[in-house]
Amino acid sequence: MAGRIEARLAELGIALPTPAAPIANYVPFSVSGKLVVVSGQIPLREGKIAFTGKVGTAVSMEDGVAAAKLCFVNLLAQLKAAAGDLDRVARVLRLGGFIAAGPDFTQHAVVMNGASDLAVEVFGDAGRHARTTIGVPSLPGDAAVEVEGIFELA
């Protein structure tokens, strides 16, 4: 039987993927006490990067937002692996977003709202979080967006 959060994901039409394996020398998440720190997730879909290039040029704003949302879905897959049950998540504490874009791009926060808005849609008020959004010249595999997170367990 699915829990409350997985039922909410189903309502939103979201199925969690198999958590992605690390592509370098790191772990996908670390747990310390009630905190889960999830490594940066790129917009992988079925093992392939779904959005590549720089937002604002090769990647539209709409696709950038979709990429950030997909990154959050991948964060949730890792979080479920760490916690065992997403109903154990008491709060989304912080999200960090990295947006691949050119030097004249200034709408990083709008792109990152794809992840932030989904956090609130999934967890309600417990999904409201602190956030940092940074523009970068490139990301692994030419991903358009990468999102990391810190979560508190009940």
Describe the structure.
This protein has a single domain (4-153), classed as 60s Ribosomal Protein L30, Chain: A (2-Layer Sandwich). The strands form two sheets. Strands 1-2-7-5-6 form a five-stranded mixed β-sheet. The longest helix is centred in the middle third of the chain and has 23 residues, at 61-83. It has helices at residues 4-11, 61-83, 108-123, and strands spanning 29-32, 35-41, 44-45, 48-49, 89-100, 130-136, 145-153. The protein has three helices and seven strands; from the N terminus they run H-E-E-E-E-H-E-H-E-E. With 154 residues, the protein is of the alpha+beta class. Residues 6-143 form the Endoribonuclease L-PSP/chorismate mutase-like domain. This is RidA family protein. It comes from Belnapia arida.
Number of helices: 3
Estimate the mean pLDDT confidence: 96
Order of helices and strands: HEEEEHEHEE
Fold-level CATH name: 60s Ribosomal Protein L30, Chain: A
> What general form does the structure show?
globular
Number of beta-strand segments: 7
Biggest β-sheet description: 5 strands, mixed
Spans of at least 5 consecutive residues whose pLDDT stays below 50 are none
**How many discrete structural domains?**
1
CATH level-four homologous superfamily name: RutC-like
